[in-house]
Amino acid sequence: MSNIEESKFEVQVDPVSIAPVNPRLKNFKDFYGRLRKNKAALVGLYVLIILFFISIFGYLDTIFGFTGVNSNATNLAEKLQKPSAEHWFGTDHLGRDIFYRVLHGMYITLGVGFTATFLAAIVGVPLGIISGYYGGIIDTIIMRIMDVLLAFPGILLALAIVSVLGGSTFNVTIAIAIGALPQFARIVRGSTLTTKNLEYIDAIKALGARDGKIIFQHILPNIMSPIIVNTTLFIATAILSAAGLSFLGLGVQPPTPEWGAMLNDGRNYMYQAGHITFFPRYDDRYCCSCI
Amino acid sequence: MTNKLLDVNGLKQYFPIKGGFFGRTVNHVKAVDDISFHINEGETVAIVGESGCGKSTTGRAVLRLDEPTEGSVIFDGQEITALSKSELRNIRSEMQIIFQDPYASLNPRQTVKTILMEAMEIQKIGKSKKERTERVIELMETVGLQRHQMNRYPHEFSGGQRQRIGIARALSVDPKLIIADEAVSALDVSIQAQVLNLMKKLQREMKLTYMFISHDLGVVRHISDRIIVMYLGKIVEMGDTKSIFEKPQHPYTKALLSAIPVPDPKKKSNRIFLRGDVPSPIDPPTGCRFHTRCPFATDLCRTTEPTLERKDKEIDENHEVACHYALDIERGIHKAQYEMHNAREVLDDEDEVIEA
């Protein structure tokens, strides 16, 4: 009885239509509403959030040792064991527990992917906007440099940069970011060129706005969508590249449990103990597909 | 004597065409080629002509949205073309522009309030945020929008309402001159009338001066005091609205006016059909630019460029025309080389001959 009354009450007073809606909040609601209709995207988002917390847990675990496991400690007595109740993902050729290595290595792999992408966006977006907005000789110089970067395949360029700078987590991040620069700069330049010729930009120029204001308040908000799309897409690529570079031995140095490096370690024992490569590999793919 | 608010002298606007291996400038589009006119304070001057004749370019050059190639633009006694960027910024509030496309002229990411507030902030109008907000409400009411629509985004408005927002933005900085670049062309006819009447009302109340760029002669007749007719980057005729509509002197103006539809099905229209297309402004014809399409053209027209001057002393003193034969055509001395009113039939006949 009371249920019916309650539902009636809800129909009569629709809080959304009466309350003054903050435009930003409304936009977020629209966005979430659309996202909810896309089941695959929603699942991806939730898994990604869970993965994010797991990786933070893994990172804190390496510092504070909640689980009391040192994933770098070798135990040759237990080497190359199959997955069991004791070692969920089995052990590798040095008897290290793969489950904990995957857990502890997660923040490195994901961290490199995200950091590299944001570095590329932070440098690439301004380059693209400047090049598109001012045009002329500035445009030519920036875009020719980007063309040079674009001429090399991403992984090859990253290889070259890492071999010059030396292999470390930080250098891998830089290398991947540089490889991604032209992609960002080109997309942003294109969008800027379209946007800057629209009449509202002329209108604001006629009002006497300065270039900085035009760029930050009028061009940037209107080219956000391609930037966001490109950023999200590139995070997946960056994670794979990071793992790839480590696999080639140029990224994160052993014994740090980075997924790519773990793959490389397990490679020699693939026929005897396939599980060593299985878990890092599929976790890697799994993360990327979620993104 | 009324005060000249805008005085344009010998204005040229050439756009470079880049080409070749090193992107050198190979040629120029002569969008506006040496035009001079003035606009008095409180007056509405319409610039008419077909698309591509340089009407909009003139408006943009006056505002220095594109840097003019040559010539002088004197606004309220100040030489606009000589101003530095920051000096120009200060004078920007005096002249504003209303654009053609109400869908492209408002930033889709800003609410109406943000758009208007920003305009005032740039020109430092109003002392506090509160004062500006009050002015936003006042402006919205002036252009016929409601105050509760203040926090809406442009996509929530109709075309006519958006154009009103555009007008409110232009008014927000208290301008003297408003350049209306095809301001009503994108609206449907009933809304056009509303917006035009609003503009007229605002002109009376705020003593505005309009430079009204349009291709719609019906609209122009309704709103303007004087008309400038342009063809291929040149002024061909200039005069008071009444005089232009009643006694057009240039063959191009006559053709243009004959194209206005008459809302009477029984009345036989005496439309003048021009032959051919508008020539390219990259390489305009020598002499009179209209000679390639003019039924009255002679060798003189092909070699010598006519000057814009007052020809017929009997008609209004402001009426100037750039045609060698304006007077002779008027008196019936100079006849057309071919029949102008049945061009369609002639073309059909020619097609038949070609097919046969």
From TrEMBL, chain A:
Chief localization: membrane
Keyword hit for Transmembrane helix: yes
Pfam families to which the protein is assigned, alphabetical: BPD_transp_1, OppC_N
Topological relation to the membrane, as annotated: Multi-pass membrane protein
Transmembrane segment boundaries: 40-60, 106-129, 141-164, 227-252
Gene3D superfamilies listed in its UniProt record: MetI-like
One CC-aspect GO term: plasma membrane
Top-level lineage group: Bacteria
Domain (ABC transmembrane type-1): residue spans on this chain: 106-291
The entry's keywords: Cell membrane, Membrane, Transmembrane, Transmembrane helix, Transport
InterPro entries for the chain: BP-dependent_transpt_permease, MetI-like, MetI-like_sf, OppC_N
GO biological process: transmembrane transport
NAD recorded as keyword: no
Subcellular location: Cell membrane
Family, similarity comment: Belongs to the binding-protein-dependent transport system permease family.
Protein known as: Glutathione transport system permease protein GsiD
Annotated organism of origin: Phocicoccus schoeneichii
Gene that produces this protein: gsiD_1
Automatic annotation (TrEMBL), chain B:
Keywords, ordered alphabetically: ATP-binding, Nucleotide-binding, Transport
Listed GO MF terms: ATP binding; ATP hydrolysis activity
Source domain of life: Bacteria
Domain ABC transporter stretches: 17-257
Keyword Transit peptide tagged: no
Keyword Transport among record annotations: yes
InterPro entries, per database record: AAA+_ATPase (IPR003593), ABC_transp_ATP-bind (IPR050319), ABC_transporter-like_ATP-bd (IPR003439), ABC_transporter-like_CS (IPR017871), Oligopep_ABC_C (IPR013563), P-loop_NTPase (IPR027417)
Gene3D superfamilies the record matches: P-loop containing nucleotide triphosphate hydrolases (3.40.50.300)
Single GO BP term: peptide transport
CDD domains: ABC_NikE_OppD_transporters
Family assignment from sequence similarity: Belongs to the ABC transporter superfamily.
Name the UniProt record assigns to this protein: Oligopeptide transport ATP-binding protein OppF
Lineage: Bacteria, Bacillati, Bacillota, Bacilli, Bacillales
Gene, per the UniProt record: oppF_1
